[in-house]
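Sequence in, structure out. Go.
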Amino acid sequence: MGPQASGGYTCSNPRCGALLTKCYNYAHHDVCNRMVAVVPGASLEGHLCDYCRFNETIPDLSVSGNIEKWYRLEVAKRRLLYNLDLLNLPYGTAAEGFELPLSFDFKADVLADEVWKTMGNEERVYTGHANGKITINIREADPVEREKQRIDFGESHRTLIGHFRHEIGHYYWQLLVQGKCEAAFKAVFGDHENPTYGQALEQYYRNGPQPNWQASYISAYATMHPWEDFAETWGAYLDMVSVLDTAENTSFLWQQEEEKQQSRQLDAMLRLYRQIGMKVNEINRELGLVDLVPEVFSPAVVQKMRFIHQLVQHAHKNVRNSVKAA
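Output:
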């Protein structure tokens, strides 16, 4: 990519040669690293990249430290959307007329930091998903606060990318499961209608996770309700996909071409992920770090992963067929 004297950049690929400009959030805030293709003669200013266009609310940049938090949020969001593109999963904006528009709100709590844990419901921003909108409390972008929460909740991991991967699981439940294959979902994850989500939530925070949850669930929180079980398992699936993709592209995982084709199958993916996890976990323990792969993939968890893998493959096939039809 080379700069032009008149502004903008030219793609260095001789078969492309497109005129490019920096995403507005790259040029003005340095929280993005993506370029936007523009028509020659058009303005080079004010363009949002294909990832930043999903933002509906960004942090208040007049508040000290929020630009750094926003940067960390955008790094995690780009990794998430790269995962979705890698898997050819469908998503889109309201402007595109997408069936369930995806968007992001990055918001802060209303009150001062020292009273965050005791605020009323109306004053606190909850990280979550609702009808395509993923909201992240920007406090999660503060490593110290996030680690406090991880310890308070007894979690093996609590990361920004983990939040994104979990919440996008709720998004894809609504997009790919709701009204389409709910009976098959119930057969694997349980009945999401009985008890209700509110009842399950109250019971979980009153009694804690189910005894011996490791035999059937990817995490303690997954025991709360089938929707959370799906989102937690979906997040673990994306973790696996991203680790294997990075391992392959950095030569950490060397395979023959035939082995690469076979490794697209779930059983092979799980086998490779376990192998990487066991080795890196031991290295991390030598340094006093948390495990890279803390999950236990019991037969019940593998069955749930298989449901998600098949759901992803089906969505991938539909996207590929729609592209061919176009």
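Check: The chain has three domains: 2-49, 51-179, 181-326. The two ends are 30 Å apart (CA to CA).
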